[in-house]
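Hi support team,

I'm filing this because I wasn't sure whether my run with protoporphyrin IX containing FE finished correctly. The job status page said complete, but I'd like someone to confirm that the output block is well-formed before I use it downstream. Pasting the exact inputs I used:
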Amino acid sequence: MSYGPDQILDGVGKSDYERYLKLSELLQLQPVKESWKHRDELLFTVVHQTSELWLKHASAEAGQAAAYLKDNQIRSALRLFPRILLAIKYCHESLDMLEQMSPWDYQQVRRALGHGSGFDSPGMNSIRKAIPPLGVEFNRLLGVEKIDLIQLFIRHTEFEDLYLLAESLIELDERMYLWRHRHFKVVERSIGLKVSGTQGTPVEILSRLNNFTFFPELWDARTAITNYAIAEEGEN
Ligand code: HEM
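And here is everything the job wrote out:
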């Protein structure tokens, strides 16, 4: 069968749409029906694979945002933050789909996973590596403006871009925190807490990660601002 002049790209697939997006390869990357231990392997795989893709995208955007900041281009970096935040939000929301699996059905899926563990998630590990350099650049830019965090919050209209960067960083921290807490609940709902994961890690250990923050100083600044306001009020 020949296809008309509509196809101009090389590659596998009937259309340029399939060829450019490499859909023939992509759609073969899920376990086939014949090998399923349970049909929910498809649901499980799609959620994990799409999460890995969104996290790959988020990490690339975070890397570019850090490069812009290094070059003092705060606005160019700010334009990328919504992309990073949306990608993490999509990962968060797709956890809903995993709760469509019954705990018993998940036990059948689990048999197919070997020692596969989220600790080895390339996407989550790369976004976690990509976030701290954003904070390093933010602190450097505070130094360039010779201003501390509290003054930045109080005089935010004078330093609008830097202030928006501070808010973008705390939002990123919050979104990561929300994903972690949501994931923790999904794990509890799927397999319970007083058990071990596929690599033998007790699930309860995950709760210790729940309090982690990337930018504690941005959270502490809120307390400092409240105390500053109270002290100022006391003076009047
Ligand atoms: C039914 C759904 C899920 C279950 C039951 C589950 C279960 C677990 C368990 C038991 C752990 C502890 C480590 C281990 O022994 O494996 C873990 C860690 C982890 N999982 Fe999941 N998981 C699920 C979905 C996901 C999804 C969709 C992602 C997205 C990438 C993910 C990413 C991670 C990460 C990054 C960790 C390391 C700990 C952390 O960063 O909080 N998991 N998961």
